[in-house]
Amino acid sequence: MSDLVELLSTLVGFPSLCGTPNGAIIDWIEARLLAAGARVQRIPGEVPDRFSLFAIIGPEAPGGIILSAHADVVPVAGQDWSSDPFILTRRGDRLYGRGSSDMKGFLACMLDAVQRVVTHPIPLSRPLYLAISHDEELGCLGVRSLLQALSEGPDRAIQGCIVGEPTQMQVALAHKGKTAFTIACHGVAAHSANPGQGLNAITLAGSMIRAVSELQEKIKTSERPDGRFAMPFSTVQIGLVTGGTALNIVPDHCVLSAEMRLLPGYEPGPYLDWLRDAGARAVADLGGGRVEIEVTNAYPGLDMEPGGVLCATVLREAGRNHTTTIDFGTEAGLFREILSLDCVVCGPGSIDRAHKADEYITEAELEEGARFVDAIVARLR
User: Fold this and answer.
1) Could you count the other beta carbons within 10 Å of the beta carbon of residue 197?
2) How far apart are the C-alpha atoms of 156 and 304, rounded to whole Å?
3) At how many degrees (to 10) do helices 104-119 and 23-35 cross?
4) Partners of 240 in the beta sheet?
5) Runs of H (alpha helix) within the chain
6) Residue 1's pLDDT band (cuts 50, 70, 90)
7) Are 348 and 169 in contact (CB under 8 A)?
């Protein structure tokens, strides 16, 4: 257990913030895996200085399992931490540090298990795959190039994928998808002493803010409720408003940054079209201007049926009797969509502690995660 905590401490010590170069932590993980005899593929991301890793331990044979984790973490700026977020700090049974729950705890369990695989007297008869991605916290960005590389490689007949996001070891088979988009409102600038000579983009944006609220009500009444989720319908909300130049200038621009969290099976297209129609009406009411809606990022939801081999295996080894759903998104939907793999989400720690000051994982949770990973690996022998 002390080795596992030390491993987590090392991982937390890399300030691998999303949206920044991640070569340092990837170099360290890659070197560790290579030293253990893994076959490692380093996959560049879509932007410079970002990398993902795909490692194979064991024989080239069908029926292997992927363990998936992301190595990036969210920023700590503006948060009131009781200790340095990038130094793993023990207080009682709690291990504090950015990413300890989300999700370097599971990543540590993955890397720790590799050491025992190579020293175990019984070799694997099926391969263990490790997928380690970047910039997951920006909308599952980094895993896309990794999955593209895998889809273009040999057909390995992989049994399935376990994404180790912090679920307190509950076995999740479903989560919502996400579509992030902007609503750019364009007007005409003018001196504020003569506002009638311009078109106020913020006024236009106000109409679109109301339209988003109306769309939410439409969604609530038109979708079939899915009681598996705490919010049993798709949601849409505006998270950021940016507009104007100065108080004495009629603003010619205002951008609303918004997102949808969509129930599995629902697509964003019809809702975005509804907003575009609302934008056309708002422009007509104002007597001019322009509204543009652009999708900036999207990833699919996950909706696996219970009863598959992977689900049964994970339930058994996690010590659970039933499956659940989660409200946050993961890379599992992309593994399912691009590689057609059975996927579950199950890992140590709690999402309720993620993205906050004094994020932590307990030593008992970390140990439970390690036992789980070891049990999954044992099934590959």
Assistant:
1) 11
2) 21
3) 20
4) 257
5) 2-12, 23-35, 104-119, 143-152, 201-222, 269-286, 309-318, 332-339, 363-378
6) low
7) yes
Domain ranges of the chain: 2-175+302-378, 177-299
For 125-179, how does the pLDDT look when each residue is reduced to its tens digit (9 = 90+)?
A: 999 999 999 999 999 999 999 999 999 998 899 999 999 999 999 999 999 999 9
Instruction: Write down the architecture of domain 177-299 according to CATH.
Output: 2-Layer Sandwich (3.30)
Say if strands 177-186 and 253-262 run parallel, antiparallel, or are unpaired: antiparallel
CB within 8 A of 290, min separation 6: which ones? 185, 186, 283
Give the three-class secondary structure for 240.
Answer: strand
Task: Tell whether the model's pLDDT for residue 106 goes beyond 80.
Answer: yes
Give residue-wise pLDDT tens across range 173-221.
Answer: 999 999 999 999 999 999 999 999 999 999 999 999 999 999 999 999 9
**Mean per-residue pLDDT over the chain, rounded:** 96
C-alpha to C-alpha distance for 331 and 338, rounded to whole angstroms: 11
Q: DSSP assignment of 284-298, as one string?
A: HHHTS-EEEEEEEEE
* Burial class (CB within 10 angstroms; exposed 0-12, middle 13-18, buried 19+) of 191: exposed
Q: Residue 43 corresponds to which tokens in the numbers above?
A: 């996959």
Q: What angle do CA 337, 342, 343 make, to 5 degrees?
A: 85
**Max CA distance (Å), the chain:** 83
Q: Residue holding tokens 């990413």?
A: 99
CATH topology of domain 2-175+302-378: Aminopeptidase (3.40.630)
Q: Which residue stretches of 287-321 are H helix?
A: 309-318
Radius of gyration for the alpha carbons in the chain, expressed in angstroms and rounded = 23
**pLDDT higher than threshold 90 for residue 121:** no
Fill in the amino acid letter for 120.
Answer: H
Q: Which two tokens stand for residue 281?
A: 């009406």
Helix (H/G/I), strand (E/B), else coil: 152: helix
